[in-house]
Design goal:
The protein is mostly beta strands. The protein has a single domain, classed as Lipocalin. It has one helix and eleven strands, in the order E-E-E-E-E-E-H-E-E-E-E-E. It has an eight-stranded antiparallel barrel with strand order 1-4-5-7-8-9-10-11. Strand 4 and strand 5 (54-61) form a beta hairpin.
Length: 182
């Protein structure tokens, strides 16, 4: 961290700067490689309260999914996967924060396709910087693994000789920059 970096988040509402953030995922393909993708349209905030507690919330417009393959992206938007027409928004709402050294563990509820399940994010706190004239910014990297079947994404695409086209485990990777709003 530079000498301009502050070590702690101040009280207030910190909004996700989507232009400087990435919400990505990866999943096994043919069991030998990984397909990577991201969501282009998402928003969220982190509220740091006076008493030191915090709340994080996010919304993801699932139709904004991109894997840089139009045919696959179209399929991901269908009822086989995200069912974007009936469930256009996935959400995350934190239920608790735990300190882990200089970093955090964030527990919360994640909802996809109308199914809500608890998840735990391992979060690396990258620090706070005074920003570029619009107030302080903070950075985080977070990761969790979910099972797509837990959220009702149960499509099976078996291969003739065994195995499947896609795996069940989805790794979610967040690279988030937030800016202090108030």
């Amino acid at each position: 961290m530079s000498t301009n970096t502050v070590n702690a988040l101040t009280t207030g509402t910190w909004a996700i700067d989507a232009a400087h953030s990435t919400l990505g995922f990866s999943v096994r393909h043919l069991m030998v490689s990984k397909i990577r993708g991201r969501f282009a349209d998402f928003s969220g905030k982190l509220v740091i309260n006076e008493d030191g507690t915090a709340q994080a919330d996010a919304e993801i417009r699932v139709a904004s999914v991109t894997t840089d393959n139009e045919q696959r992206d179209g399929h991901l938007r269908t009822a086989d996967f995200f069912h974007a027409e009936d469930f256009p928004v996935a959400t995350f709402s934190s239920t608790g924060f735990r300190v882990n050294g200089d970093d955090f563990v964030v527990d919360g509820n994640f909802t996809i396709r109308g199914v809500t399940k608890p998840v735990t994010l391992d979060v690396e706190f990258l620090g706070v910087n005074p920003g570029m004239g619009n107030g302080p910014v903070a950075g985080f990297e977070a990761k969790t693994v979910i099972n797509r079947r837990d959220f009702g994404i149960t499509i099976d695409m078996p291969l003739p000789d065994g195995g499947a086209v896609i795996g069940d485990k989805i790794t979610l990777t967040l690279e988030i920059e937030v800016g202090l709003q108030s």
